[in-house]
Design goal:
The complex is a heterodimer of chains A (81) and B (257). With 81 residues, chain A is mainly α. Helix content of chain A is 85%, strand content 0%. Chain A is built from 3 helices and no strands. In chain A, helix 2 runs antiparallel to helix 3. Chain B is mainly alpha-helical and 257 residues long. The chains are: A mainly alpha (81), B mainly alpha (257). At the A-B interface, helix 3 of A face helix 5, helix 7 and helix 10 of B.
């Protein structure tokens, strides 16, 4: 594995696009879902780069850990206001 | 400072950072080339030394087990910090877990306002599947992709489904907070105790002292499997504790100071 193959390059591009989309999304509730998509692309990328362990960690964090914390925090903030 | 000047300043600073980044990246080794010796050595010796099929797990929970101990305690400290920040005064006077029923509805409305029968049935169905899958991921870390950290988060997502579909009162019935706290501490403590056990046998801290077993079998790889179980318990109960804390009804309706 000494150079990118096409699939890796495509997914690299998708990660870049999704990362930009996360920054451009301003509403936090929508942003967390865009961030989830970004994490999924990263998961695919890690898998294509021959590191399934990191891919599984990324999947768990990006689909469970991060959304839980952000959404529950937003829910609490709306109640406190 | 006017916005225009600020933009100019950002452009100058941004160009500088970009230049440094490009300069630094030019010196990196080419894509896919690994110059260091350790990866190749571990790949060569891990199977015969530790009887694991997944070398990554051997590095995380054995060769570099001490680093992982620190990582686990980072999570432990984070969960403790969140619990402290979100603690209500009522909790300290015997009200360990169960929130008072008359105040329950407020946050439940915000989190699970309109969970339909269909989504509740699906959540109940998936809970079991997720638990089985999480246990599988925790237990087979030394054989395949997985381990305590990932499996723990997957296990905790079953409780997340309970919170999302049935609301926080159901979660508090499904996961007693004091029990979850005990599990979290036990999981974190197990790692240290396994490490200390090797001292009794005259070995260094966290030396793999258990019989290694047949490679490819579930009961193999010595302490790696045990540590994985401990980490799985710690991570899952840590996340469940976070869910309990965040999903707790707000008892004092005044702004957070």
């Amino acid at each position: 594995m000494n150079s990118f193959n096409t699939l890796q390059l495509v997914v690299f591009g998708l990660v870049g696009l999704a990362g930009t989309a996360v920054v451009l999304t301003r509403n936090p509730k929508r942003q967390i879902f865009v961030a989830g998509v970004y994490g999924l692309f990263q998961t695919v990328l890690f898998y294509l780069l021959h590191s399934p362990d990191v891919a599984l960690s990324e999947l768990a964090v990006t689909t469970v850990g991060l959304p839980i914390l952000v959404l529950l925090t937003l829910a609490r903030l709306e109640k406190v206001k | 400072m006017r916005p225009r000047h600020r933009h100019l300043l950002f452009l100058v600073a941004g160009a500088g950072v970009l230049g440094y980044l490009v300069w630094g990246m030019l010196d990196l080794s080419p894509f896919g080339r690994y110059p260091g010796p350790y990866g190749d050595i571990v790949n060569a010796v891990a199977f015969s030394e530790r009887h694991v099929l997944n070398v990554v797990t051997a590095v995380i929970f054995d060769y570099r087990g001490f680093d992982t101990l620190g990582e686990e305690f980072i999570l432990f400290a984070c969960v403790t910090g969140v619990s402290l920040l979100l603690r209500h005064e009522g909790d300290e006077q015997g009200d360990r877990c169960s929130p008072k029923p008359r105040r329950e509805s407020s946050l439940e409305q915000a989190i699970a306002p309109h969970a339909s029968e269909a989504s509740r049935s699906c959540a109940a169905l998936y809970c079991g599947l997720i638990l089985v899958f999480g246990v599988y991921i925790v237990l087979t870390g030394h054989l395949s992709v997985g381990g305590g950290f990932q499996g723990g988060v997957i296990l905790a997502s079953a409780w997340l489904l309970v919170l999302v579909a049935f609301g926080s009162p159901a979660l508090h019935r499904f996961a007693r907070k004091y029990a979850v706290e005990w599990f979290e501490s036990a999981g974190a403590g197990a790692y240290v105790l396994i490490g200390l056990a090797s001292l009794l046998f005259g070995q260094n801290f966290l030396t793999n002292i258990l019989p290694l077993g047949e490679p490819g079998q579930l009961l193999s790889s010595g302490t790696i499997l045990l540590i994985n179980c401990g980490v799985g318990i710690e991570v899952s109960s840590g996340f469940i504790l976070l869910l309990c804390e965040f999903g707790k009804p707000l008892q004092h309706q005044k702004p957070v100071r």
